[in-house]
Design goal:
This protein is an alpha+beta fold. Among the domains are: 189 residues, Neuraminidase (6 Propeller), CATH 2.120.10.30; 270 residues, Neuraminidase. Helix content is 15%, strand content 35%.
């Protein structure tokens, strides 16, 4: 029809919406008449849920022969449209019913004046921040003479006029048209009731009841397609289902007669008095405004409903076939990390996951189940462990040692409280968030209001100060919660029950093992021996049901901590699992200085972190089975001449980041029972003794050892979003902080300098700084750099920038680092998951890259109706 502008009325000092009829239509009698009719209809309506009209402007053109400008001056309504809200997923019943009630009240006011909207749809409904609903756009509305309601002339729908059909124009929106409107027949207020049912269905289900690839498909669905009632949440009250069935009856004579009846029923559901019958349930009910029934009659009605309704529910429940289990895969965003495997929203309509972009920064990505791809949620840089609000409209996450929340519809994140080294959280229905974070160097459970404030430590006294408390999950009451707990001894590992009302009570262990757990719809889900299991859980008694756990999924991937498992479940029981899969296959491959492939070293494996020995005779790598685990990991040595590989560690543990001390010894990181990586040293000649070097409660990775074997530099992650560099003398094992927010360090051959990646800016840059005393500092890269490696003679420093390997001329002996930067060659595909690729350099200048030859991209498996398979 035209364009709508935000404008300011200088006379009355108020902002307004100015709806200007498009220039193409000002000479169209039909369009012009419709524009005038909208003004007249709005002028006749005065209701708080209908956007008001302030005036009609008819400004003569300043150009001779040009038509006048026609404009409506309307109430400016702030806030998103209902369509905008629904794009982010279904709206919970508690929020949807007040919106539906106000829409019904607006239509009721219009219908009382004999006005039919005829174009009701979510895009024509706005919801202000205070919850007030405004129905907009009465451009298709037509006054109907109630006394002549059978007159086709009086009620002729403009939906499919001959001229509109010729122009290919469908007035209104096909997905919300009543069958009689789609056929071009006469319509009355029952067309609005049909559209109201479509809107309410879409709010609750998160999808339209009628869809198609084009208008003809949609209209065919409106006329013939059965409605998929299973799309509604399982928790939808029977009274609401009956109301929707009456609104969406194709037989106009059987459809709900008055929108006021819908309003009354919604009010009863909102008050919890859903035993009041809905029109069409076999009882004659009239709107309270027009007729009052004797108390005796109402008593009989209520009694009959109380007796018959449970019988009907049991009869239908017994006769309805159990839906078959359905599974399908969803692609995850590239670079998805274990710091946030996909989390399904409580209403089951959306997923949130943490993934790294090309800039190697973790962010939260969102995907609605009916969308084709994930989208980045702006403002979530550095995120880890996201979790949903109970109404599925917001997310909480950790970044910068802070717990934050953000609306999935957009906007800046809101800091709630400090959260150092967080390990998961949960958002309860009672208005509180629980999360695991460090307090005074101890891992604690913390409680904070969803409006923010100082957190309260909430760890049950059953756990000693050295214990782990991670991944809390609220139960439906918002007061009790589950969490993974351990005193770092296997016999205490398990899922425990706690309460925010009695934090001094000794928590009871309900499931043993190194796993988190989640509750949904009468079942407790947890992982044992890699498999996802479900066991009945009595929420009233807060106790497991009898019987053995039910197998649900054969193998589940692990998160960044072994107690974190890659599964989530909605309130209604929709499961999302990332299966444990084979890791990517990598090939050690030699390249010459011109980037030409020289040869492959050994066969493809899943091993990572290659480091060449000082004499170039061997390469040490760490095995990687695709997930951290306490057994099965190892370090391997590959002969650079023959390609033969042999295992060199046989003590159980997950291994990472080896670095050579001499030709006969190396250091490495190994995961402890606590899930923390500590640093050890060992002989490379197959000796079994592993000497501990750094044992503490912080994740660590060994970076490099100086050529003379005197110093070890390692990285430690005090938080999820920062990594610092520490130095330890082998003679005096007392670590000293060298550089904050830095990683990927390498000693110069003469030991006087340390090259590393500093994260002072985004992206990170390569720096060189004096050693052992920090002071003289040079920036080597510009515009981003990663993974610095020295040539063996110290005359060049290599690093990666984007997909390029860069060489910088240096003179480490003279302390000069202002040489020319030269691109060497394009970096091959690699193993790090981001832009940079693991590599090392020999004495004669050959490059060894760990090239990915078979990449395994994780996928999420969504399971619907999992209990159907369990019954077999």
């Amino acid at each position: 029809m035209g364009e709508v502008y935000r404008a300011h009325d200088a006379k009355l000092n108020r902002d307004v919406a100015l709806k200007i009829l498009s220039e193409a239509f000002v000479t169209d009698p039909d369009r012009l008449a419709r524009f005038h009719r909208e003004a007249q209809v709005l002028a006749a309506l005065n209701h708080p849920n209908i956007a008001a009209i302030y005036g009609f402007e008819d400004s003569p053109s300043t150009v001779s022969g040009q038509p006048a400008t026609q404009a409506l001056v309307l109430e400016l309504v702030e806030g998103p449209t209902l369509a905008d809200r629904i794009t982010h997923g279904a709206i919970g019943l508690a929020d949807a019913l007040p919106i539906a009630k106000q829409i019904a009240e607006a239509l009721e006011a219009a219908h009382d004046l004999g006005i039919v909207h005829r174009d009701l749809k979510p895009a024509n409904v706005k919801v202000r921040d205070d919850g007030t609903v405004k129905v907009l756009d009465f451009g298709l509305a037509k006054a109907v003479d109630p006394a002549a309601s059978s007159s086709a002339t009086a009620m002729n729908s403009p939906t499919l006029t001959a001229r509109a059909t010729q122009l290919g124009v469908i007035l209104g929106t096909a997905a919300y048209m009543s069958p009689e409107q789609a056929k071009g027949k006469a319509v009355d207020k029952r067309a609005d009731i049909w559209a109201f049912g479509c809107v309410l269905f879409e709010m609750l289900a998160g999808r339209r009841p009628f869809n198609g690839d084009d208008i003809s498909d949609v209209m065919a669905a409106v006329l013939r397609q059965d409605i998929d009632w299973t799309a509604l949440p399982a928790s939808t009250p029977p009274a609401v289902r009956r109301l929707l069935s009456r609104c969406l009856d194709r037989d106009v004579k059987q459809r709900l007669r008055d929108i006021g009846e819908a309003r009354v029923q919604i009010e009863h559901v909102m008050r919890g008095t859903t035993d009041v019958p809905t029109p069409g349930d076999g009882l004659t009910v009239s709107p309270p405004r027009t007729r009052r029934w004797p108390h005796a009659v109402w008593a009989a009605v209520v009694l009959a409903t109380a007796v018959l309704a449970p019988m009907a529910v049991r009869w239908f429940a017994g006769s309805e076939p159990v839906p078959a289990m359905t599974r399908f895969e969803l692609d995850l965003p590239p670079g998805t990390t274990a710091f946030g495997w996909p989390e399904i929203s409580p209403d089951g309509r959306a997923l949130a996951a943490v993934a790294e972009g090309d800039d190697r920064i973790r962010r939260v990505w969102i995907r609605s189940m009916d969308d084709v791809a994930f989208r980045v949620l702006a403002g979530t840089e550095g995120a880890s462990y996201p979790f949903w609000s109970p109404n599925s409209r917001s997310l909480a996450f950790f970044a910068d040692d802070t717990l934050k929340k953000i609306a999935i519809s957009g906007g800046p994140p809101e800091p709630l409280c400090a959260a150092v080294r967080a390990r998961g959280g949960t958002w309860g229905s009672a208005g509180f968030l629980l999360f695991s974070a460090w307090v005074e160097n101890v891992e604690e459970l913390n409680q904070v209001a969803d409006s923010g404030g100082a957190p309260k430590v909430l760890t049950p006294r059953a756990f000693p100060k050295a214990g782990l408390r991670r991944f809390p999950r609220f139960l439906p009451d918002g007061r009790h919660f589950l969490f993974f707990g351990s005193s770092r001894q296997t016999e205490t590992d398990g899922v425990y029950l706690g309460s925010i009302d009695d934090d001094d009570a000794a928590a009871a262990r309900i499931v043993s093992g190194f796993t988190e757990a989640r509750y949904s719809n009468g079942f407790l889900f947890f992982v044992r021996d890699g498999a996802l299991l479900a066991q009945p859980y009595d929420i009233s008694r807060l106790a497991l049901g009898s019987g053995e756990p039910i197998p649900v999924f054969a193998s589940v991937a692990e998160g960044a901590n072994e107690s974190s498992k890659a599964f989530s479940v909605s309130d209604a029981g929709t499961l999302v699992v990332v299966p444990f899969g084979a890791p990517s296959k990598n090939q050690l491959r030699w390249f010459d200085r011109n980037g030409r492939t020289v040869a492959d070293l050994g066969a493809p494996t899943s091993r990572v972190n290659p480091r060449i020995s000082p004499d170039d005779s061997r390469v040490v790598t760490a095995s990687n089975d695709g997930r951290q685990q306490l057994a099965g990991g190892a370090l391997w040595l590959t002969d650079t001449r023959t390609g033969e590989a042999r295992r060199t560690t046989f003590i159980e543990g997950g291994y990472a980041s080896p670095a050579w001390i001499t030709d006969d010894a190396f250091v490495f990181a190994k995961v402890a029972a606590s899930g923390i990586f500590d640093i050890f040293r060992q002989s490379s000649n197959g000796g079994a003794e592993q000497v501990p070097l750094i044992i503490d409660r912080v994740h660590k990775a060994s970076e490099d050892v100086s050529r003379d074997g005197r110093y070890l530099v390692y990285s430690a992650a005090p938080t999820q979003s920062t990594t610092d560099l520490w130095v330890m003398s082998m003679a005096d094992p007392k670590p000293v902080l060298y550089a904050k927010n830095a990683r990927h360090a390498r000693f110069s051959p003469n030991g006087a300098w340390l090259a590393y990646v500093g994260r002072e800016t985004v992206p990170g840059e390569v720096y060189v700084q004096s050693f052992p005393t920090p002071g003289q500092k040079f920036q080597i890269s510009s515009g981003g750099g990663d993974l610095p490696v020295w040539s063996r003679d110290g005359q060049q420093l290599f690093y990666q920038a984007g997909r390029k390997l860069i060489a910088v001329s240096t003179n480490a002996a003279a302390g000069r680092f202002d040489g020319k930067s030269t691109p060497v060659f394009d970096v091959p595909n690699g193993t790090t998951g981001g832009v940079s690729v693991e590599y090392d350099v020999t004495r004669d200048g050959r490059f060894l890259f760990n090239v990915t030859v078979e990449r395994q991209t994780p996928k999420a498996v969504v399971t619907l109706n999992w209990k159907a398979e369990a019954r077999k």
